Amino acid sequence: MVWANTVFLGCRYQEDLMAKIKDMGEGIVVEDVPVRTTRDEIISKRKRGASSGNDGDSGVKKPKAGPNRPGPSPQAPAQHQPFFNRLYKAVAWKLVSVGGFGPNLDHYEILQSCVESCKQSLSCVFVPLKDIPDLPASRAQKEGQVCELRCDGVYMGTGYGRDEAAARAMASKEALKAFQGRKVTVKICRRRYQGTDVEDVMLLDDQPRSQGFPPALSYPFQADSVETVEVS
């Protein structure tokens, strides 16, 4: 009976008695012996689990891995620069023909015609102003549309207006301002997108900037759900 208790019920006795029970059970083969876990074994396993968990936690919280989104190639500025050198000359001649840069021009028409003469097209992204998370909290105006202009994937300008046409006109005006300097340069810069800093390929003039860039309206190198319009 004592031997059966140790095998089938998991009972434990004094060491000298357990030794006798072992001798009595020699030669007896039992199939499907129940696996028993003692209280001491359970406590020991819990201690080992807690110890291994602490080994991986040194008190420093590791940042959660964010979405793996592609960034610009380091060669992107050099690849785009020749095209924008040609566009710079086209814009310069166009502005001379209309009497120079001014507030009363059709900035979008001028920019679009110059881009088309260089065998490229403009793309516009429109987002309602109220849906942009990176605007200053003090900004009272919440209605209207914001337009972001790109050419060949390179950011050119952002503009705000009461509707899409007005926002696109303002974005074109901001884009043309870059062509007023002695040259334009394609660079990789950091800007905000949905509360996170991202890298973007941007067209800049030769003037020092005292302010940051407007927040991106869509992720620069991955299609999003915002409306993108190719203008040709």
Percent in strands: 15-25%
The N- and C-terminal alpha carbons lie at a distance of 94 Å
Mean pLDDT: 78
Order the strands across the largest sheet as they lie in space. Answer: 3-2-1-6
Relative helix content = 25-40%
Main β-sheet, in a few words?
Answer: 4 strands, antiparallel
Descriptive overview:
The chain has helices spanning 2-9, 15-24, 39-55, 76-97, 107-117, 164-177, and strands at 122-128, 145-151, 154-161, 185-193, 196-204, 227-231. The chain is 35% helix and 19% strand. Helix 4 (76-97) packs across helix 5 (107-117).
Features:
232 residues, alpha+beta, four-stranded antiparallel sheet, two-stranded antiparallel ribbon, 6 helices, 6 strands, 35% helix, 19% strand
Q: What's the helix and strand layout?
A:
Blueprint: H1 2-9, H2 15-24, H3 39-55, H4 76-97, H5 107-117, E1 122-128, E2 145-151, E3 154-161, H6 164-177, E4 185-193, E5 196-204, E6 227-231
Antiparallel strand pairs: 1-2, 1-6, 2-3, 4-5
Helix pairs in contact: 4-5
Short description:
The protein has six helices and six strands; from the N terminus they run αααααβββαβββ. The chain has 232 residues and is α+β, with helices and mostly antiparallel strands.
